[in-house]
Amino acid sequence: MSQDVAMMPPTEPGVPTTAPPKEEPRYGGFTRFEIELEFVQCLANPFYLNHLAAHKYLSRPEFIAYLDYLQYWSQPPYVNYLTYPGPTLRHLDLLQRENFRRDILSPDLVERLLEEGTKASVAWHTQG
């Protein structure tokens, strides 16, 4: 649990203080921000995308709407929290396309995405 304490301005004796701001709701002990960050980062993994397609999540309108909502991660300051912003945001963008959501069932596409990710990672680490 966070040790941060909201600083309240000093008050005169007998004058009630305002209530401290309410803490963000938690789900299973995590904030919505933490849950969405973890989920969106999972999208960098082509095997996870394949799993979502195999279990028919990518054909559910409400899930597609959720993926559209998650595009806010491509904007500052949110993008700064992503560990692998390149593949995460690329896959989030590709998931907006119906043909990609269908084609990710193909082991060939999963393999191609893995190869592209590996090459990009190697290239990034050798720059410099």
TrEMBL record:
Keywords: Activator, Nucleus, Transcription, Transcription regulation. Residues 1-23 are annotated as: Disordered. InterPro entries: Med31_sf, Mediator_Med31. Signal peptide: none annotated. One of its GO terms (biological process) is regulation of DNA-templated transcription. It is found in: Nucleus. Pfam families: Med31. Its main location: nucleus. GO terms for molecular function: transcription coregulator activity. GO terms for cellular component: mediator complex. Component of the Mediator complex. Component of the Mediator complex, a coactivator involved in the regulated transcription of nearly all RNA polymerase II-dependent genes. Mediator functions as a bridge to convey information from gene-specific regulatory proteins to the basal RNA polymerase II transcription machinery. Mediator is recruited to promoters by direct interactions with regulatory proteins and serves as a scaffold for the assembly of a functional preinitiation complex with RNA polymerase II and the general transcription factors. Belongs to the Mediator complex subunit 31 family. This is Mediator of RNA polymerase II transcription subunit 31. It comes from Cephalotrichum gorgonifer.
